[in-house]
Amino acid sequence: MLTAVIASVSFAVAFVCGCLLCKAYFLTSGGADLVHRNKVHSLLQAQRVRYRKRLLAKNNVIRLHKETCDQIRETLTNIENEHAKHGESLHKAETELKREQAKSQNLQQQLAGLKNCSTKLQPDETHTSALENELGMLRIEKDELAARIKCAEKEQAQTPATAETDESEDVIARMRADMGELRETLATRNRRIHDLELQLQESAQQTRILEAKLDNWKQHLTPLTRKLKQQKKVIQNFCLNNDTEHQSEEPGEIV
Predict the structure, then answer these.
(1) pLDDT tens for residues 128-152?
(2) Alpha-carbon torsion 41, 43, 46, 51, what sign?
């Protein structure tokens, strides 16, 4: 019985000693591995934190890049819209320019008509002055013929009725023939004077009509010419502004 107790106590003591020895062995042999594992774990944690920071930075860069791409797309869309608007404005300006060129051609034709009117007025004025000179000469001749007829009538009235000889009858017949010729000449001059007066009235009326047309065309052309000059200035300014905008909106400057 005592032997069994001693054996049990010995076995217990041996077991405890073995456990202590094993623990001491494991503690002494596994310390370096534990330190290495802790270092590796800390390095992994540091790398994980560093990689997480880099990932966040990359995500921020990607987000900024996407925002920049969206801004560039929006800018390009705005530029395309502006170019489309400028194209429409340029098309309108070209159509307006063609319309104004047609108006300018019409104005040039009207100016040519004005020149023709002015050239027509000059011969009309010269013709009118010639008619007036001829009318004055005819009136002078008319007055002279009327005076000669009056003198002949007085001489015929002063001839005595008793002196009716052959010579006096010849003189009276000759005087009557001269008076008839003078009256015919006077009638011809009167008809010519009447015709010249009618021609002068017609030429004066035509001159007034041409002058009225000339004044009307001048009043009509003056604002159109002013408007044409203003529109040419507007189109030139628009073309200059469009060129400057094309130069400022290059791809290198957008980036």
Answers:
(1) 676 677 777 777 777 777 777 777 6
(2) negative
74-79: Cβ within 8 A, 24+ apart: 75/254, 76/254, 79/249
> The domain at 46-157+169-254 falls in which architecture?
Orthogonal Bundle (1.10)
Tokens of 7: 């054996």
Closest CA to 210 of 105, 129, 123: 123
Query: Do residues 152 and 178 lie in contact, with contact meaning Cβ atoms separated by under 8 Å?
Result: yes
Residues 242/86, Cβ–Cβ less than 8 Å? yes
Question: Where in the chain does DSSP place strands (E)?
Answer: none
55-88 tens-digit pLDDT: 899 899 999 999 999 999 998 998 888 888 877 8
Q: What is the pLDDT of residues 144-203, one digit of tens each?
A: 777 777 776 676 666 554 444 555 666 667 766 766 777 777 777 778 777 777 877 887
Question: CA-to-CA distance for 154 and 172, rounded, in angstroms?
Answer: 12
CA 8/CA 35 separation, integer angstroms: 40
**Domain range list for the chain:** 46-157+169-254
For residue 122, how many other CB atoms are within 10 A of its CB? Answer: 10
